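Case study.
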Amino acid sequence: MKELHEKIIQDGKVLSNDVLKVDAFLNHQIDPPLMQAIGEEFAARFKEDGITKILTIESSGIAPAMMTGLIIGTPVVFARKKKSLTMSDHLFTSSVHSFTKKETNEISVSKDFLQKGDKVLLMDDFLANGQAVLGLLDIIEQAEAELVGVGIVIEKGFQPGGAMIREKGIRVESLAIIQSLEDGKVTFANGESNE
Amino acid sequence: MKELHEKIIQDGKVLSNDVLKVDAFLNHQIDPPLMQAIGEEFAARFKEDGITKILTIESSGIAPAMMTGLIIGTPVVFARKKKSLTMSDHLFTSSVHSFTKKETNEISVSKDFLQKGDKVLLMDDFLANGQAVLGLLDIIEQAEAELVGVGIVIEKGFQPGGAMIREKGIRVESLAIIQSLEDGKVTFANGESNE
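After joint prediction, the assembly is written out as follows.
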């Protein structure tokens, strides 16, 4: 997605060969018109698939998922990373390890909002090691809902998550795939870079 | 805001005299068209105020803040509840106690995204004891930014946060003010109820 590639090149910061910081527009400060364009792109890619629900995870998945849900006309559910005291035991739960934050979180989704018969688009801001996607897939399976595909804003193609999910036969649509962050330079899988 | 009142009456669940669960449309499952209507309402209320930035806090503030930012044309920054390892020390921080979750979180905002000269609309999904608003006000003050006002989706008028913030001379716009949850019944400050 051209607009996203340009934004990554303009405002992304390469902190190391592994870490791309996009907190200027995606996961700390949010650029609403970019989120709208991202929503339109996901809606175009998944519009024929009869999606009934979008499932994402707090916090950075919420903005792109909400814009996609607004355009395709479905509710959005965000998995919680910790049980809230106002939630009951009426939950699907799974575990997600974050290599970045070096911690494992329990994630949960209320049984009220994901059910058998739902056709689910799973969305997240980043796909790197794929742990969050695995946790959400587990929850979709527990709910006996149907996974339609996975929509990712930025995939780090040099980390194993994307290949691992695709090897399961799952459709993964990533709007930007980063091939390398070496030498402080963003190179996209389609060959674009910031030089 | 009529549409929000109706949604609260239709899908909100009164769990006790203090607790209203709105996870069907606001803080677990999100209703995107309602978020758009909420964004339009905040935009109408604050459109003359020259806002340059919306500040909210993860996670449930993100959806209404993003729609408001899209309509009024400003970026949205969401305070993080815990330091991420990919963030530097380049942060404004404050503490927020949650009575619901019985925990105190450090919240932080990067100095890159809130600055002197910013005219800030502070937004959150709920206003009850006002602790999150106080933490965000502290961060706005540290940044020497200018607070324009506070936009709240649902204010629990029977808890002290709203009065405490207004007593500071701060403009608070709440789209729904709940006067009471007694006897399992939602009564709004304007006299509407679910009976």
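Observations recorded in class. Chain B touches chain A at residues 15, 19, 21, 23-24, 28-33, 35-36, 58-59, 62-63, 66-67, 69-70, 74-78, 80, 84-87, 100-102, 109-110, 112-113 (CB under 8 Å). The mean pLDDT of chain B is 94. We will return to this complex in the next lecture.
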